[in-house]
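Troubleshooting: if your tokenizer reports a length mismatch, compare your output against this known-good record of 572 residues.
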Amino acid sequence: MAETATATPAAAVKDPIYLHTRREPFEYGLLPIPKLIFSDPAVTLASIKDKLIQRSIQSESPAGPFRVNSTAVAETLGIGQDIARLVVDTVASVLSSDSDPLVEAGFEGIDGVGVNVFDLVLWLYVQSYKRLLPRTHKDSASVADVWPSTSAFDGYLSALSPLQLVRSNSRRFMPSQADEEAHQLSYLQKHLANIVSLLAEALDGEGDESLVLPMERFEHLGFLLQFGERGSAGIPLIQASPFFANSDPDMPPAPVPASQVHEWLIQCIADSLEHITERTPAKENGPSSTSGSDQDATMTDANANSAKTSTSARGIVFIEGVSKTSFVKQEADLKGSSIKVVNCHDSVIYILAPLRYATVYGCSDATIILGAVGKAVRVEHCERVHVITASKRICIANCRECVFFLGVNHRPLIVGDNHKLQVAPYNTFYSQLEEHLAQAGVEASVNRWDEPLALGVVDPHDSLSHPAGVSDAQAETASRIDPDQFTNFLIPNWFAGECSEGTKDNPFALPEAYMASQIRNNNNLGEVKEILGETSLEDSKKKELSSALHVYFKDWLYGSGNIRQLYCLQGE
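Known-good structure output:
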């Protein structure tokens, strides 16, 4: 087996390439639905897989074999139709290939195509994954106040607000991207035998020796794993493996014994874990540097006066520590297709670019504009934040007093401990918006901003957010913002002169009540202007009126938070 393990492409290139987890299923693909988390996933999912394969044979999909629609998923898993459709859509959002028929099907065509049984089984398996706990301190007693117990008798964590929880967990001990990947690799290392066996099929005979992986099933391991270092695309598993490489194009490739696949992957995971350990030897001494090395960007404490932008070795752009300012990133400024906005406060942040994935984490008193996100947005542990985004999907977790102005193709998902959330229709535009929507695959004709779907308060994948033993309940949903409180958000035209054609107005149609409110407000403004213009006042009275208007306007700017929009004009 040593020969197989060394028959990797790492020996054929100048710089070794290592096996990585695909972070998307772990970061954007976990749903807090206890019914989908199995105590013995290998046994339970083997039975579920057989039932799903049988259903796929009974109603063959035009997209190919081994596909089932949401009805089959609902009946096999014993869940409601809405949840089953959410499951299928979530799998679609984290697939490794954009050419998969499920991804190409679009909003209305998902059930006509169906989800691949093996992708679904792998997704169900990783629902047992537990997110990484913060790094512990070698002197645990000295940080007992920072890392409180999560026992059922300690209500400390649940009493904290989302932002207090983030801040109580000193950033020095928050997991880095390298920590998280090592945790994911260790999880897959532990469960790899079960995962491979779920994809394998049995030849004549009994026992593990009879299990083989045809090439088509081997490729599904790419849902969880890929090779490559720089950039977010990675190298598909099938291209980097020593299997199926010399297959006759006129003949179907011979299946590979499952034991060989398992041993090869175990060796690759061990090599990757060793590589991660070698790259991050100084973690115990605090956050590592994010200079020009290949080391992953860490989410460290940021000085209030210094924002940090970094790109991790896996192509994720981090924007951290923006405070009391405006911050702009356009398409040309971003080297990756995914972005994380972390620990930003009292600011306006513009990300005017097409993206695949976006995360907003631990922010407060900020307005964050995300241009067009083709896969998923996740907003977590935020307070008093306005998020404006056009996206296929959005998940909101553990937030307070936040407002979401959405152009979203699927129902907004609300999970965890949320309070006083509001949703509103999309309220802005910039000249390249429609171009970015097309690139991201977001449909402006479909907006489900007002159909939030609330799941459980307790996230079974996260043992830190709630004390152990707390019973679950449905999360608090979001209310619609009052049409009379709805306002448009103006993005400064940084693209003036760059393109004569472009988006001139909000591409998402406003609901009738909100459009009527806009018209009414515009009419009222016109009437006030007309009255002021026709009013004859002495110069002293004009000055008094002007002064009073300025005072009220200033109070409104600060009271509403719209003063942040003026930050954009500084220096211009």
